[in-house]
Each structure stands twice: as structure tokens, then as C-alpha cells.
Design a protein that fits this description.
about 20% strand; elongated; alpha+beta; 13 strands; about 375 residues; two-stranded antiparallel sheet
């Protein structure tokens, strides 16, 4: 018995395009197309749209929401660098080693240079966006967009190198200088099955019941490790902040700017008021490196030797550090203007992370607070 084979014949009409026929897409109004392009947001895809037609070429620069994914951070000292900035972020296909592997080492022993020197400059600004997009810095790429309001930039990796299994996440808010920073860390995260009715718990040592930091926190370099986490995160945040100055200068329409990384380690945010402050107040660069000066700050540290979270998640050595400039409203004073600033800071801390990390912050905020002070650097 032979089985008949069915054949599929393409209808030629499907692939036939009548040049006299009206393109239905042309019937869409310009504002609607701009809304669609805003949903696209990715700068590479928008760059390709520039080459689609004259109409698209005129509409793409009107996009207000832009996402830029960076694959390499380089230092360009030659004439090919973008604008008047020495540092550039470059869109390429090579993922670099962790930038922070030498941050702390150089800070302690020589002069901090937060970016690796790599050979080669950046393509000239007069070259077309495509196909050389992968060799341009965001400063150059964004020159094609004149109405950017919400900008999100993603670096290829977190800046702070950590041991395997260590949890380190930070979120910082900047104006012309640091305004708020929250750091969540842990020496290890565990995953294990738990009953459905499990709740968040944390171990409480006898020393903590007496109001003092437990002895275990000082042993095996526990406290020293938290100090390194804090300094490292602040250096990473202030370096990112410094690199944004040229972009902010050239885009006065910006209302929101987020600089994060593909690892989800750190996030720098600037809102409308912070961007306004950045433009109006002079930036204070650090004397030792290409980053913004970190002001003298007050820190609040909360610690739990082991924190159990919903979903079978457990964090060993869970630590929450919140940081605000020492001159910002005098956090410990009773001034009337301090209330709203304190509420804003608490909201910033509570909303900094998602998922299990948000649960960890919520649990740690209930723990005993240890106050520390830090000089500017």
C-alpha cells in the first residue's frame, strides 16, 4: 500500500507586491509609530530602524525611552574618544574580566585606576550608525536621539569581584554626589525544601540580646569583609556616576537614568531632581581616580548569622548596610525637615531589591542597628 504524499503549493499572490498598492503601515500616524518604537527601546534595534525608510529615519530620533547594552568598558586617551570625556563605554562583542579585581588593590597601594586600558580608539562620530554600531560609545550612539527622557544602560558584569557563592548587591542614588546607598551581602545562599507554612526567621545570639555585636562577627575577618564590601560597592557606584557626566550634559531632556549590570549586582539611579542637581552643582571628582568623591557618611549596619526566607532560601552572614551623607539632614537629629527625608530613605531601602532579596531586606530592617561613620574618599 503506497501512501500518497501531499504537496504544499505557495500562492504566488502571497509573495507578490504591487508597487501601486498602498502600504498599510503608512496609514499609521507618526505619534503611534513613536509609541511602538518606544516599546522597542533597544538602541541597536532602533539603529537598524533608522535605515528602514526616510520616515523612520525622522521618527526614531524622537524616541524617549532608550536601552543601551554595553559589552566593554574601556579607557580612550587618544583623539578618537567621544566628546571631551576621557572615559568611554563601548558597545562591542567581547566581555571583559571583572573591573573591580584591581580596584581595592590599587586604592590601598598606589593610585586607583578603575578602568582597564585597552588598545584602539573609538570610531569617529561622523561615521554612520550602522554597521559600525558595535564600535561606538553610548555618547556617540545617543547623539542620534534628541528627545531621550528615560535611559537605561546595562554593563556586561558587576564591578565588584567576590568569592564563589558570596552574595553582594547594591543600589545607589546620586545627584551631584551620593544621596543614598543600600548594600545587601551574605557569605552564602542555601536552597532547601521547606513546609508550605514556613515564615521568615533569623538566629539571635546571646551577645545580640545584650546589645552588642556577636563575637562571631569579629572572627575569621567577618567585620573586615563587610567593610570591603561597603568600600568596594561605593567605589563602583561613584565610578559609574562619573562616567555619566557627558551623557547627562548632552541630553537635557533626561528625566530618569539607570545604570545597571548584566549580573544584577549593582544599580545606580538618578531621577528628575537628581539630574537637575547634577547639572546645576559642580561635580566633585575624587583626587585619586576618575570617579566622583564619596562624601563623609553615616552608615547603619544590620546583621544576622543566618536568615531563613520563604521558599527554602537561607542566607548565611546576612548583612544590610544603609548609607547616607553625614551632612544630609543630620539623620540623628530631630529637625522638622528630617522627617520626609527619612521616609524617602526608608522607601528607597525597602524597594531596592526584588524577590528573596527584598524579603531579606525586610527581615534585616527588624534587626538591631549598629551605627558607624565613614570619612569621605
Amino acid at each position: 500500500m503506497t501512501q500518497s504524499k501531499s504537496r504544499i503549493h505557495a500562492d504566488p499572490a502571497i509573495f507578490f507586491f504591487d508597487e501601486d498598492q498602498e502600504d498599510q503601515f503608512d496609514r499609521l500616524p507618526d505619534p503611534l509609530i513613536v509609541v511602538i518604537l518606544n516599546k522597542l527601546s533597544d538602541v541597536r534595534s532602533l539603529g537598524r530602524c533608522l535605515a528602514v525608510s526616510r520616515r523612520f529615519n525622522s521618527l526614531v530620533p524622537m524616541v524617549t525611552d532608550i536601552f543601551v547594552r554595553i559589552d566593554r568598558v574601556v579607557t580612550s586617551d587618544g583623539p578618537g574618544c567621544a566628546g571631551d570625556s576621557d572615559e568611554t563605554l563601548t558597545l562591542t562583542s567581547t566581555k571583559p574580566r571583572s573591573l573591580f579585581s584591581h580596584f581595592l588593590k590599587l586604592m590601598l597601594f598606589t593610585i586607583l585606576k578603575p578602568l582597564n586600558h585597552l588598545h584602539g580608539g573609538v570610531s569617529g562620530p561622523n561615521r554612520p550608525l550602522l554597521p559600525q554600531l558595535s564600535h561606538h560609545s553610548p555618547v556617540q550612539v545617543l547623539k542620534n536621539f534628541t528627545n531621550v527622557e528615560n535611559l537605561r544602560i546595562e554593563l556586561p558584569a558587576g564591578d565588584v569581584g567576590t568569592e564563589e557563592g558570596v552574595i553582594l548587591k547594591w543600589r545607589a542614588e546620586f545627584g551631584s554626589t551620593l544621596q543614598n546607598c543600600v548594600i545587601l551581602g551574605g557569605t552564602r545562599m542555601d536552597h532547601k525544601p521547606v513546609p508550605d507554612n514556613a515564615t521568615i526567621t533569623s538566629s539571635l545570639s546571646p551577645e545580640e540580646n545584650n546589645g552588642s555585636i556577636p563575637e562571631s562577627f569579629y572572627t575569621n575577618g567577618g567585620l573586615k569583609l563587610r567593610v570591603v564590601w561597603t568600600i568596594s560597592s561605593l567605589i563602583a557606584a561613584s565610578t559609574r556616576h562619573y562616567l555619566l557626566r557627558q551623557i547627562i550634559k548632552e541630553h537635557p531632556t533626561l528625566k530618569s537614568l539607570v545604570l545597571t549590570d548584566a549580573d544584577g549586582q549593582g544599580t545606580l539611579i538618578m531621577g528628575k531632581e537628581q539630574l537637575k542637581e547634577f547639572r546645576e552643582k559642580p561635580l566633585a571628582p575624587s583626587a585619586s581616580s576618575s570617579r566622583t568623591q564619596v562624601p563623609a557618611s553615616n552608615m547603619k549596619l544590620r546583621y544576622s548569622p543566618y536568615l531563613e526566607l520563604p521558599g527554602g532560601v537561607g542566607i548565611q552572614g546576612a548583612t544590610l548596610v544603609t548609607i547616607r551623607p553625614a551632612t544630609d539632614g543630620n539623620a540623628n537629629s530631630g529637625n522638622g525637615n528630617n522627617g520626609s527625608g527619612k521616609k524617602d530613605s526608608e522607601a528607597f531601602v525597602s524597594g531596592s531589591f526584588e524577590g528573596a532579596y527584598k524579603d531579606a531586606v525586610k527581615a534585616l530592617l527588624k534587626r538591631r542597628t549598629y551605627l558607624l561613620e565613614m570619612n569621605g574618599f
